[in-house]
Amino acid sequence: MNNQALAKSKPIETIQEHTDNLLGCYKLLKQEKYLKENLVSKYDDIIKKIITYHDLGKLNSKFQNRIRKAIGLKKITYNKELDNYAEIPHEWLSLSFISKADRKFFKSFNSSPIYFNDLIKYCVGFHHNRNKRINEEAYEKTVLLDLEPNKEKIDYFDKLNKNINLDQIRRRIEDDFKDYMPFIIFFKGILHKCDYAASAGIPVETKYQGDYRKNFQDWLDKKKIVLKNCQKEAKTLSEKSLIFTASTGAGKTEYSMNWINGDKAFYLLGLRTAVNAMYDRFEKIFKDNVQLLHGEGIYRLLEETEKNNNYADNQDIFKKYQQIKKLSYPITVATADQLIPSVFKFPGFEFYYITASYSKIIIDEIQSFTPESIASIVVFLQEIQKLGGKFLLMTATLPPFVKEEFQDLIDSGQIEDKSYFSDIKRHRIKISDETFYGETAENIIKEGIKENKKILIISNTVAEGQNLWEHFKKYNPQLFHARFIRADRQEKEEAILDAGKAKNKGAFWISTQIVEASLDIDFDLLLTENATIDSLFQRFGRCWRKREYNQKIPNIYIFKPKNETITNIIYDKDITEKTWNILKKYDDQLLKEKDKQDIIEKVFDNIEETKYYQKYKDYKNLLKLGFKADNLTEAHKFFRLIYNNYNVIPESVFDDHKGCIHSLFKKIGNKEISKTERLKAKKEIYKFTVPVQLLGKRQTFLAPLPLSSYYSYKYDIWLLKNVKYSEEKGVEFIKDYKHLDNNII
């Protein structure tokens, strides 16, 4: 080890060992046929050379001595003249090893405008994200005084190239990025995929353990579920991309499971609440083949580990989570922002695209996203389709303009357009010109409680939900929204799911849009503020979800928002008004499921001049023109349009739990205790926090936590001032700042 060139310190690995591990990962991707065989056949030697070259620059003495110091080895001697120059990143130095013979070999693949020498250099030289400029003199000196004298340590004997024009390589590639993109995704994506897996010591991909079809059928038999004809058809279409529009409660989840058919898949939803619920459904059937991925996933994994006592060594938690984050499980249920932001082409996006290129992507209820997010999803799916990936766009109500984006592929037979609308009638709607505060709502609730019904009110804002909780307090409602600390929110999430599934048991809940998407809850009576039609239909799906309704009394009531100005900030004003006017024509009618799609089409007809559509179109055009994010964090912001986002601890919560919070932060900073114990402390801290987006001046609301913690600084955990907090209502502004209540989301 003393004389060998090292690549890693944890675990200790030589450059050759690390390279061999990457080649092993690549071999598995080939053998298990994840990659397109025609591309592998054509470019196999190129991929192996990219992998072989990618880390040779780590031979430089400054890098070697940094690793040797970390593992307690004596430093190697080097030319002291190099002390006058900054260290050159290893991936840039790797380019100096590309031999003349290989440059000639790469050139033989040229096909204008693709120049393979530039392409290979780009894949090797930019497999890490560096923003600094190269110091050409330092590069030349490092090659001549350091790499040349030591190259035989890695059995390299050709003359090194000391002149590398990185700016020129980057410029040539980026000027023709659209032409180069499929090659960059294939070559650089494979490099990233293999490098991440080899470095983390995890499988590059994991095949399904067991028999997918048997697991699925056993569960169907156990639940005494007989698949409908449309659900059975999904299996026969499993080699195609699909757009599937079907009634709420029609069994879209089972449809997706049949379509997956044992292949690698990602099931993507908008809200963590919905993701958690969907993961629970998948996990019951497919067990450890399914994993959960979102921002709080590590804590959920820790809970499962503690509950089941699965691991002899809790360090396995971190390795398993790395495997989840590196997308190597057979089925991943995730928030859409774990995959879709790669459409913004940040450095390293190729890893996500290469994985998606041999996967099945399920998007559940696309209309529940913002127009900007829909544009991102559409462009992502269009690009993944071209690369060989397959998608299932699955929804109860599809906006027509989304379908139009795929019309050419539908016409050519590359994408199947399927729909299933049951004849079951579930909803009779009533439009009220009153707000929730009139006599109508009061009488409906009073009568519903008397009849032991499960009642759900959905408001457009947290503030309005809190006001309604106060207004109907005498009926003992429970309140659920996103502005509770996580410990309380988890309890409420579990409680509303239990209430929504319970039979012959009354309940009264007030909530926000947080219950809209894919939560398998079924209330008897829904009262909702008016919103856009897509949002309303999502809300409808929480009422009489799987039952037929044939009564003359409405089970869904739509009220005017008390504050229409605020509603028009949250939802597009034109779409909201059009929704109201069209729904009036269906007042007091039983809606067929097909009626809902007809209503959607009427609302979204001639929407080209609306702000909603302009937002969609502008974002789509921006992506088509090649807009790129600087990094993954920025891409997340572009996808979710979430800026000024913070994790906060309400001041009163901090005061009530000051000793515990101090102790937990102290534990997190203590490097002498195990990583698992520190993770447990982070999970406990997390329970005291609320995620908020502050649109006003943050100094009005935020203050540093009154304790010293690098962790709180790094993860933007702040004290939230000028608010009250209670388990019943969550975060509320105090009187002096009540007018700012709608500036916090």
Question: Would you give an account of this structure?
Answer:
- The chain contains 33 helices and 22 strands.
- Strands 5-6-4-7-8-3-9 form a seven-stranded parallel β-sheet, sandwiched between helices.
- It is 48% helix and 13% strand.
- A hairpin with a 2-residue loop joins strand 1 (6-9) and strand 2.
- The protein has 745 residues and is α/β, with parallel strands linked by helices.
- It is globular and about 90 Å long.
- The protein starts with 5 loop residues before the first strand and ends in a 12-residue tail after the last strand.
Summarize the structure.
By secondary structure, the protein is of the alpha/beta class.
Continuous helix count: 33
Structural shape: globular
Alpha-carbon distance between the two ends: 56 Å
Tell me the radius of gyration: 28 Å
Largest sheet: 7 strands, parallel
Strand order of the largest sheet: 5-6-4-7-8-3-9
Unreliable sequence segments: none
Query: How many beta strands in the DSSP annotation?
Result: 22
In round numbers, the mean pLDDT is 92
What share of the residues lie within helices?
40-55%
Q: Which structural category do the helix and sheet elements fall into?
A: alpha/beta
Strand content: 5-15%
Short descriptors:
745 residues, alpha/beta, seven-stranded mixed β-sheet, 33 helices, globular
